[in-house]
Amino acid sequence: MYSATTKVRVRYGETDRMGYTYYGNYAQYYEIGRTDLMRQFGLTYRSFEDSGIILPVLTLNIKYIKPSYYDDLLTIKTTINNLPGIRIKFDYEIFNEQNELINIGDTTLVFVDEKTRNPRKPPEKFLKEIKKYFP
Amino acid sequence: MYSATTKVRVRYGETDRMGYTYYGNYAQYYEIGRTDLMRQFGLTYRSFEDSGIILPVLTLNIKYIKPSYYDDLLTIKTTINNLPGIRIKFDYEIFNEQNELINIGDTTLVFVDEKTRNPRKPPEKFLKEIKKYFP
Amino acid sequence: MYSATTKVRVRYGETDRMGYTYYGNYAQYYEIGRTDLMRQFGLTYRSFEDSGIILPVLTLNIKYIKPSYYDDLLTIKTTINNLPGIRIKFDYEIFNEQNELINIGDTTLVFVDEKTRNPRKPPEKFLKEIKKYFP
Amino acid sequence: MYSATTKVRVRYGETDRMGYTYYGNYAQYYEIGRTDLMRQFGLTYRSFEDSGIILPVLTLNIKYIKPSYYDDLLTIKTTINNLPGIRIKFDYEIFNEQNELINIGDTTLVFVDEKTRNPRKPPEKFLKEIKKYFP
Question: How many interchain CB pairs under 8 A, A with B?
């Protein structure tokens, strides 16, 4: 298991006329969560792409528990619960400033060769590092 | 069962550096789908809100089958499979111009009183109309 | 001079907690306007990119006269007032359903070679067509 | 004169298929800039709205000098050059990690009473504080 937390502040343009963060914007928050997880891990998502690997999303699931509002400083906890293979799954929990769990979800992504657009194994370096957390 | 289809063209700003429609933007396409379903039904989502009812989203699930690209003209098929109560579920299928199914998903929304922010029954008029499709 | 009009309906996720269309979203509406202008012209922006030309934006200016609201069906009038060279300028006027002018603006874009990322002349075919409107 | 700087990291969903940050997204960066300026000033934009004042945008002008890319950590410098009255103008400069100026722009906003939607003077407290910087 490997977890990382990151903060994101709700932007004005991310709210809707209900005054809530628009439901579609959580997908971006999740992406920030997994990007920062990888960064804290010593690898950037950009470095994946620069080495010819892209990571399209296969599935997205979100459960909205409570709304968030403009200017809220949210905490995103991102977790890898299973050793990644060709696919990698991230679980997310989002907390508001009162530390209430407001949102849970997950995404599954697939490692793809940018040129051929075929699935492929993750980079060796990444696999080697992540295996330490799944003894 | 009640179904409606609508068209949406992928905008430049909706693509990402993979050249695909960004995964988070499908939430907006789903919203367009259910909005147009209600419009074809003779009711607008705006009229709900104007009568003091809001419809926040409880769950969102998306399965990405194939990517879509800038300028693609997508067809969104939105279906209500169950008679709505306090909650209403919409199922979505998105097709590209080659009529390939590229994306499926669903959302569950809840009827909420704008003032009290408590769940409530759908408007009578809407219930009466929709019941015709669930004999 | 060459003008084209296109319609766009304001999406829920494009509004903000004021209930207005978020000010940043007009840039997308402008892009829809110029894309449709080129399409009505028999050329797609995608065909530019497929032939190795990209069109980054150099300047954007917007004047917000009146707000627009969720579900409004807006009319975007896009105009090329000057024969394009390496640069191409588009002027925009947006009207609401009451035919009130709610927004004016302009963008200047530059033709760039995708590989070298250097400015270049527009494609011959495009120049030839557009010249007919600037006798 | 009053200046503030803030950082923003370019999100994946903010890029487009050119690989650049989509031109419309700078409006959000500007909003983050002015929001953080007001926050460092001891006032939040949210507190304005909570006291019945909204701040719609009247004009937006952007000059794109260089592109930014996914994962770039940008610095936004926001400046108030003139004592605000009913209108308030913000100037922006955006720098990349190499400290290159990549983008300049400005926005003019107007203080509006949320109920009447008429222009009004800024809150006394804000005026008193900001006047210290325009002796």
Answer: 57
